[in-house]
Amino acid sequence: MLSLTLLITFIAILSQQRAAVTAAGCWRNTACTGPKTAAFPGDWDKYNYAPTNRVVSPISYFPPGGGASTNFPGAVSLKGNNQQLIFDFGKLVGGIVTVSYSATGAGNLGMAFTEAKNWTGEASDSSNGSFNPDGAVIAAVTTTAEANFTMPDAKLRGGFRYLTLFTQTTNQININIHDITVEIAFQPSWSNLRAYQGYFSCSDPLLNKIWYAGAYTLQTNAIPPQTGRQFPILGSSWSNDYDLSLGTTSGTIYVDGSKRDRTVWPGDLAIAVPSILVSTGDWEGVANTLQVLYNDQTSAGELPFAGPGINIYGSDTYHMATLIGTYDYYLWTADQGWLNTIYPKYQRAMAFITGKIDGTGLLSVTGTNDWGRVSQGGHNTEANMLMYKVLTSGSQLATWAGDSASSTSWVKMAATLKTAVNKLNFDPAAGAFKDSDTDSSIHPQDGNALALLYSIPPSNLTLSISTALTKNWISIGSLAPELPNNLVGFGQSFEIKGHFAAHQPARALDLIRRAWGWYLNSPFGTASTCIEGYLSDGSFGYRSQYGYANDYSYTSHAHGWSTGPTDALTSFVVGLTVTAPGGREWNLQPQFGDLSEAEGGFTTPLGRFTAKWELVKGGYTLALGAPVGTKGAVVLPGSERGVGRLMSSSV
User: Fold this and answer.
1) How do residues 350-403 score in pLDDT, each as one tens digit?
2) Among 33, 288, 362, 638, which residue's beta carbon has the most beta carbons within 10 A?
3) Residue 642's pLDDT is what?
4) How does DSSP assign 418-476, residue by residue?
5) Distance, CA of 422 to CA of 437 (rounded, Å)
6) What's the rounded Cα separation, in Å, for the pair 570 and 199?
7) What confidence category does residue 24 fall into, taking pLDDT thresholds of 50, 70 and 90?
8) Three state DSSP letters for 181-217
9) From the centroid of its chain, how far is CA 501?
10) Dihedral, CA atoms, 523, 527, 531, 534, nearest 10 degrees?
11) End-to-end Cα separation, the chain, in angstroms
């Protein structure tokens, strides 16, 4: 097609008809089971990226080539062949697009989507998994005084910030764009998308933005179960109409990314679930997602590496992530009916994975599929740190399920494994864990971060492990030695939690700012969500040389496994955690870092929990609130900050 000069003609706004979609409420025929109001309204709501309405419009548009932006709405026109305008929603959105227009002449109106500004144009960024172009949605246009085009439901676009409208014609055409709307599909059972059941605020606005970016990322990953990515993988274009429900009836399921893969990947839940619980508080969606994974369990007890419709197995680490997520959910909700239903499957899953513990006391990995690290297998350190957490959390879960025999057995296995991994996998010369007992070529981010997070090494080694992790730092985050040249939201999420667990808040906050702050402030990103990963040169080509076919546009810019700061800032900086089912018991142990104040809260079925601290001359004040009948422990920060004073409590 010939490229003609773009003619943008401002025309009188004769009508500002909104698209023919419902302006409020839940997604389509989804039952509205979510909260109606925010549990903790306050000044921090200004950081919340969630829209006030389920129908949203762009805030501006600009011509291709980086021209100046113009505010939208305001009717504009595309005149002639191969003309483009790029509409910017200002943050990531996702759903069904409707364009209201009038036109003279005949031709096509194209719609292409992208999360990042880098790939605006007539082809959408990649999402279908084939690494062939996604292309665009095309609408046939003829002369009309007023018309609406709504994209087909199967073409639902789960995540995008930019929408490119373009023309195709062999004749004359003039299309006047009156309005553009998106019917938001995510968080389908909520009538109020801003009704968060948790909150966070501190003295650093950047950290506040990052906390809420994580929460919003997780909202965009909460999708209607019938809108999963189509499988088998399409050779071109895209289709998001695969049913992920697998026998469940809930209106929400959590997937890895809003654009792609729109599939339940259990490993991602290890980061996503704790962050969901402290932010949006959507434990109903978490329960349904876990149920889908258990419904996909094999007769041998193995849980999937990826749920429907990929339905692949062979991952010991992702198998264990589902078990950890099961513990996290029950600890938060005390949902005994759910546990009683799940527990027989949980027992079979535990038998499957503990059967791989060999005579050394370590897990010998045979299911080698993993998150993307280059190698896996044998006495791998990352896998054994997860195995330790599975055994210790499993012991607690077994007690709550009335299974004392398993509880005793699993806690003994955990003690043996802990001794063995410290003896066989630790490298004293490096002050960190090797990749396995036989591979000292790298000292991995994932294994060492998990070791700190789960308190596996002796206390006298935690500082050296934390220090060793910082040797991988560059200006925009922490490199993963196990995936060369890549910075991974998953591993970095574990690392910040590991530094906090090692009582190194300055390091954790530094890494949050340099990694998540870098992306949130990027002029090319979504300015609202957490990216899957990126390369050391700051380009978005995560895993481009390790499975993503050198397709930089395939990277997900709204990935739940990268939301670790949301949980970490609540659980470690505010310091408020749940320690017994439902919140019957809790712990408050704040870490100040370089902040002057912080506060946060969350909700469990028992009610609301809040905590706040503030530095004052000569010390600090500390306030907390929890439901009546609960109890907890308060661990005051060190004496270097002076004497602490507990100001108030509703416990």
Assistant:
1) 999 999 999 999 999 999 999 999 999 999 999 999 999 999 999 999 999 999
2) 362
3) 41
4) HHHHHHHSEETTTTEE-SBSS--S---HHHHHHHHHTT-S-GGGHHHHHHHHHTTEETT
5) 10
6) 8
7) low
8) EEEECCCCCCCCCCCCCCEEEECCHHHHHHHHHHHHH
9) 21
10) 10
11) 70
CA 158 – CA 241 distance, rounded (Å)? 11
Q: With beta carbons less than 8 A apart as the criterion, state whether 332 and 604 touch.
A: yes
DSSP letters spanning 492-518: HHHHHHHHHHTT-HHHHHHHHIIIIIH
In angstroms, what CA-CA distances link 293 with 255, 298, 538?
12, 10, 35
Distance CA 87, CA 93 (A): 12
Q: Which amino acid is at 388?
A: Y
Rounded to whole angstroms, what are the CA distances from 34 to 184, 190, 221?
15, 4, 16
Contacts of residue 233, Cβ cutoff 8 Å, sequence gap at least 6: 128, 129, 130
Show the tokens assigned to 349: 């899953």
Alpha carbon 117 to its chain's center: 20
Residue 16 clears pLDDT 60, i.e. is over it: no
pLDDT of residue 188: 98
* pLDDT for 182: 98
| Chain mean position to CA 129 | 19
In whole numbers, what is the pLDDT of the chain averaged over residues? 94
| Local structure of 268: helix, strand or coil | helix
| Element holding 100 (H helix, E strand) | strand 84-105
pLDDT more than 90, % of the chain = 92
C-alpha span between 271 and 451 (Å, rounded):
15
Is the model's pLDDT at 70 over the cut of 70?
Answer: yes
Find out whether the peptide bond into 73 is cis, omega within 30 degrees of 0. yes
Residues 6+ apart with CB under 8 A from 529: 49, 91, 92, 159, 213, 216, 217, 220, 258, 557, 558
253 token code pair: 């399921």
How many CB atoms neighbour CB 338 within 10 A? 17
Q: What is the pLDDT of residue 13?
A: 28
Cα–Cα distance measured from residue 580 to residue 331, given in angstroms and rounded to the nearest whole number: 6
List, in sequence order, every residue forming a beta bridge with 201; answer none if it has no partner: 599
Amino acid at 337: G
Backbone angles phi, psi at 43, to 5 degrees: -60, -25
At 416-440, the pLDDT tens digits run: 999 999 999 999 999 999 999 999 9
Q: Check pLDDT > 70 for residue 104.
A: yes
Residues 568 and 243: their CA atoms lie apart, in Å, by: 33
C-alpha to C-alpha distance for 169 and 517, rounded to whole angstroms: 43
Amino acid identity at 349: A
- The amino acid sitting at 24 is A
User: Which tokens is 405 given?
Assistant: 């025999």
Which residues are within 8 A (CB) of 638 and not within 5 positions of it... i.e. 6 or more apart? none
